[in-house]
Amino acid sequence: MSPKQNFQSPPQPKPDKKAPGIPSPAQVLLASHLPGGLYQRTLFINTGPEILAGGLVNRISGGQLYWMGRDHSALSRAQDILRTYPGLESTITFEIDLPQTTHSSFDQAALLIPKSRALARRWILAAYQALKPGGNLYLCGPNDLGIRSLIKDAEAIFLAGTVLAYKKGNRVARLRKPLEPGEPGNSADWVTAPGIAPGSWQEFQFEWQSSNWQFYSLPGVFSANQLDDGTRLLLDQLHLPQDARVLDFGCGCGVIGILAALQGASAVDMVDVDLLAVASARRNVTARGLTHLRCLAGYGLQPVAGQRYTHILSNPPFHTGRSINYGVTDEFIAGSGRLLEKGGQVILVANRFIPYERKLQRYYRKVARLAETGRYQVFSASIPKKQPETN
């Protein structure tokens, strides 16, 4: 039996089949219970643009809307949709925190919970700070993402919550900020946790090439508390020339890009659609005083269109929330060849159950497996195939 046959990969998860633009049951539930009001000032956190489907726009017309979240692409789509409603006064922020000028200024806030409980707590605290005394938080999400526990978390700083409805495995609750609010830390110790308290960061350390490394991250960012084993396997294959120009796609908190720069790359771009990831990468770049790295937010390869690299490195994403979604990585593989200089190569790491080798072979003439373990494989791809022109 060959070594390859000894590996036992976990079963492949089912892909996400939700059509883009179609509201999820949680989004529908939240939208149906969010009150309108001519002069209401509403904060939307992580709700996605799909929440605007149905009759919500009519109920909130005439009010002021402020949107924040982590997904650059979702915020951009919301921005495009809101522009089609000239009667709505709306602001989209691509920053990870609300400015202090917005504190205690909102009548209500709508929050769709994320997968990470720590990130949900960060946003619950942000909503508390943003709401006027007496303002309401509408908190919604799936039962299997822990909405019941998060309602209890929110009740530690808000008044007791009221569950408004249950539907299709989701629930929505309303919580009111006290008329005479105190400091949240007096009633909930989680508000001071690293990455949740404003201006704070999670920190983690790891050893690589006989050196200890410290990185900063935020809740919800991929591998936010430790070096991912797949990333380590990719790093062990890196042997960059001093004049390497590197793209780190799906950079997370920037480990691959930063260590490529410290290995000698002359220029590094790091790209991620996750605003929390890009903020973390920037924090790590600043902490090391590196000046030849750029951290860019945006969907796919759009932020670096027209650039050229000798090496494109990636531990590519394949999750959208809880669901498996290969769309972003498929587009990355298809488009990466246009960014490679002659003689350049793509190096990516993937879980063994993902068929990236076949995907790479569709677009590259030369594909090699550089390393593998029971869980991960590292591939190198070079010499892009000529692709048909698209209109």
Can you give me a brief rundown of this structure?
The chain is of the alpha/beta class and 391 residues long. The chain has eleven helices and 18 strands.
Outline the fold blueprint.
Layout: H1 3-6, H2 25-33, E1 41-45, H3 56-60, E2 64-68, H4 72-83, E3 89-92, E4 106-112, H5 117-130, E5 131-142, H6 147-155, E6 162-167, E7 170-176, E8 202-208, E9 211-217, H7 229-235, E10 245-249, H8 255-262, E11 267-272, H9 275-287, E12 293-297, E13 309-314, E14 319-320, E15 323-324, H10 327-336, E16 340-351, H11 356-363, E17 364-372, E18 376-384
Parallel strand pairs: 1-2, 1-4, 2-3, 4-5, 10-11, 10-13, 11-12, 13-16
Antiparallel strand pairs: 5-7, 6-7, 8-9, 14-15, 16-18, 17-18
Q: What does this protein structure show overall?
A:
25% of the residues lie in helices and 30% in strands. The strands form 4 sheets. A 7-stranded mixed sheet has the order 3-2-1-4-5-7-6, with helices on both faces. A 7-stranded mixed sheet has the order 12-11-10-13-16-18-17. It is α/β, with parallel strands linked by helices. The protein contains 11 helices and 18 strands. The chain has 2 domains: 25-192, 3-Layer(aba) Sandwich (Rossmann fold), CATH 3.40.50.150; 202-384, 3-Layer(aba) Sandwich (Rossmann fold), CATH 3.40.50.
Distance linking N and C termini: 49 Å
Largest sheet: 7 strands, mixed
| Domain tally | 2
Low-confidence runs: 1-19
The residue-averaged pLDDT reads 89
Q: CATH class of the largest domain, anyone?
A: Alpha Beta
Radius of gyration: 22 Å
| Overall strand count | 18
The CATH topology of the largest domain: Rossmann fold
- Secondary structure class reads alpha/beta
* N to C succession of SSEs: HHEHEHEEHEHEEEEHEHEHEEEEHEHEE
Helicity range: 25-40%
Tell the overall outline: globular
The number of distinct helices, counting runs of at least 4 residues, comes to 11
> What is the CATH architecture term of the largest domain?
3-Layer(aba) Sandwich
* CATH level-4 homologous superfamily of the largest domain: Vaccinia Virus protein VP39
Strand-residue proportion: 25-35%
- Please list the strands of the largest sheet in the order they lie side by side: 3-2-1-4-5-7-6
